[in-house]
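**Backbone geometry record:**
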Amino acid sequence: MSSFHRLTRNFLFIVLPVAFSLVDYEPSVTVGLLAREASLIGWNLETRASQTPILITPERNSLAEVRNKRRALLVVFRSGVVDASDSERLIIDQVLKSDPEPSGRFRWVYSLIAQKLNRYIRKYRSLTAAQDMSEADYVISFNLVEYRRILNSTYPYGELFVIAKGAPGTQTPPRVIWRGKKVVYAGDAIGDLIKELKILRGES
């Protein structure tokens, strides 16, 4: 059962089926995005570009499509878009261009989210970590909006999305099928997603 990557303090990436440990927060590190080839199997941008973005409404905000899918890729990115209701295409573009191996402050936020996902993986074994886009059934993506200082501690806030993999054979584009609450603490955001997955899959 594969877990999400472990990040060490010296920032070496160890791709092993082990859980995360939280890394130190480094305020001096600049947040950056690394360009990444986006034309991967099932995530073709040209196919998606010809499609009208599918808007997320309360009725459509469902994880049913990934109920029996196991391989998820975790991506943390930063975008100026806060509300994806009318900007789904831009959000998906940002996710596809983001490197799955986080850099800078993204490592800290990634580890925070991955810790909870890894606990879910170990307990229920209904989810496994994909190593890249081509391997993933769907993407769990966190849009880092801001950091908030509360009682001398720093907390990452943003929006969480689940993006379903497209199907080039039927010209079905990648699309946002689920979004969390508005801008919330990263730990609460992933907690809400795990709670819904457990309900959907009958996990107690």
About this structure: Helices lie at 45-49, 88-97, 105-124, 186-201. The beta strands are 6-7, 13-14, 71-77, 128-129, 138-150, 153-164, 175-179, 184-185. Residues 105-124 form the longest helix (20 residues).
